Hints:
Structural class: alpha/beta
Number of domains: 1
Radius of gyration: 20 Å
CATH topology: TIM Barrel
CATH superfamily: NADP-dependent oxidoreductase domain
Distance between the termini: 45 Å
CATH class: Alpha Beta
CATH architecture: Alpha-Beta Barrel
Shape: globular
Number of strands: 11
Oligomer: single chain
Order of helices and strands: HEEEHEHEEEHEHEHEHEHHHHH
Amino acid sequence: MNEQLTSGRRNVLRAGATFGALAYATAASAAQQQNPNAPASKADHHVITQSRILGSGTSGMEVSALGFGVMGMNYNRGPHPDRKAMIALLRQAAERGVTLFDTAQVYGPLINEELAGEALEPFRHKVSITSKFGHRIVGTKYMDGELDSRPATIRRTAEESLKRLRVDAIDMFYQHRADPAVPIEDVAGAVKDLIQQGKVRHFGLCEVGAQTIRRAHAVQAVTAVQSEYHLMWRAQEKEIFPVLAELGIGFVPYSPINRGFLGGSINEYTRFDSGNDNRATLPRFTADAIRANLAIVEVLNAFGRTRGCTSAQVALAWLMAKAPWIVPIPGTTKLAHLEENLRSADFKLSQQEVSELENAVSAIQIVGDRYPAAQQKQVQG
């Protein structure tokens, strides 16, 4: 009983500190938007100090325990925010200890890599920038639904990405989607050549099945697999995680807050109609699905309320508690949300708490598929 009371008092104090910091961060974010290049107040400058290792052996890659997904800063998440503000925010993330930044050729296309390259150029020796290849792009136009992982295309894409990212080597080069027309051994071999040439440092795969991982890893060690993974989508746990653990491969969950949904700011009246927001096409973001799935956000809120966590922090803390080789990459366009995300690394969930949270969420029937049929065909899981 005394232990529970002590824990309760500690959680209340932690809650006050957390939400006070978030309020301060909100004010700082507003000030930054008025003057994007102004430095943040040291009082709200939370630094992430925890690190993790993706991969193992010579393919290991040490990064901050929480990364940053750059995509939504100018692609698939609504109207483009001010470019200068986004550059300032990315630099804030780097100054606060984030060392893993994720982008891709197809985001934009091309403009997301350019943004990451310009913003992170002053930190090029302190951070790792990962990018992706595999979609067919002609000029600056994405050929919707078409894939191209031919070795010649991989080599050309790498050269072009190096220029946009303003780096000498791409820290990790992922195949964005498996190309059924190109054996994975050929893909891995092409990236292996780039690694030997010093143009790429590590090899990654996205949204692939267990056998594809094994076949690729036999040719070139895979450092990390990137897939969607969060409390509403846990399919990788059954077949993928055992393979990653066996082979010593890291895991990078994208959309770890389910495209903002688990943060609690989306409801059935939210509209994704800007022309640059893919949530408008996703079955789980219809009004009916959102209305039904909000029960999950309520579970996260109830769980976090007694622990001093927001629902987004609960979602991220849960991911980091699942395995030491998991590094989520939440994205944001707001300083307050960056602050909120970084503080999630300070919350350590016990296995009992992890089970409690999973049991509560599992009792809720999730409505809607994660992708429409055409996009679902491109993922192996």
